[in-house]
Design a protein that fits this description.
It is built from six helices and eleven strands. It is of the alpha+beta class.
């Protein structure tokens, strides 16, 4: 019987302890979710949880991932993504691109998927447990008079983040605040220069664990979007 379950940085269970603090279970998975090593006192399959959001079905050996099943032997899902190509993976059966830093707790969308604020908040993403994070903050666009407080620009480039990488301590917003403080800015005080402001928001993403190459790509899209909006403002 276990009382305390210990997980790694992605939420994958790795150890369990009883009420006396004695280790009663330990397991290591490979990059596909297959069991590499497992030690348990008593029941063999003491902990049925695998990657975050997955629960092993002992009869089939597949992992239940809420909206579909995942095969650790194949390293992919057994059904197509219910949200189709909107899931960000053209194979329709693929799991995340990098299991060392990404997860898919609902079997719907990919953590760190890039798109637009409107696209990531569309109906096809309902239930994926992720939030759209804009590199150019909405309040910044309001201050630049490119939109109003009530109107979110759906075309604003964004990234899909879970709570851990988004709003909690160590997430993108938290790191942004730390960087702003180091530059003498308040929590919601933006730098008037776009380049410097993007340095802050991109830096926050990198500190929160977002891959550098994807951060650069997202920044380029954000810069293009900002230029289009300023041109539209001039034409208006």
């Amino acid at each position: 019987m276990w009382e305390v379950l210990v997980s790694d940085y992605l939420g994958t269970p790795v150890e369990a302890y009883d009420e006396e603090g004695k280790k009663v279970w330990e397991r290591n998975l490979d990059i596909y979710g297959r069991v590499k090593t497992e030690e348990a006192l008593g029941e063999k399959n003491l902990i049925p949880f695998r990657f975050q959001g997955q629960y092993e079905d002992e009869e089939t050996g597949l992992y239940y991932n809420r909206f579909r099943y995942y095969s650790p032997e194949e390293g992919c899902y057994t059904q197509q993504d219910p949200i189709g190509l909107a899931g960000g993976n053209p194979t329709l059966y693929g799991y995340v691109y990098d299991t060392l830093c990404e997860l898919d707790p609902f079997g719907l969308a990919i953590l760190f998927e890039t798109g637009t604020y409107g696209g990531l908040n569309s109906s096809v993403h309902v239930g994926d447990g992720l939030q759209a994070h804009e590199l150019i903050r909405h309040k910044y666009l309001v201050q630049k008079k490119l939109t109003s407080q009530r109107v979110r620009l759906s075309g604003n480039p964004a990234i899909a983040l879970d709570n851990v990488h988004h709003t909690r301590v160590g997430g993108a917003h938290w790191w942004e605040t730390q960087i702003r403080k180091s530059q003498g800015l308040g929590r919601n005080q933006f730098h008037p220069n776009l380049k410097r402001e993007l340095d802050i928001t991109q830096g926050g993403l990198r500190k929160a664990g977002y891959p550098a190459s994807q951060a650069r790509k997202l920044r380029k899209e954000a810069e293009k979007f900002y230029k289009r909006q300023t041109k539209l403002k001039c034409l208006g």
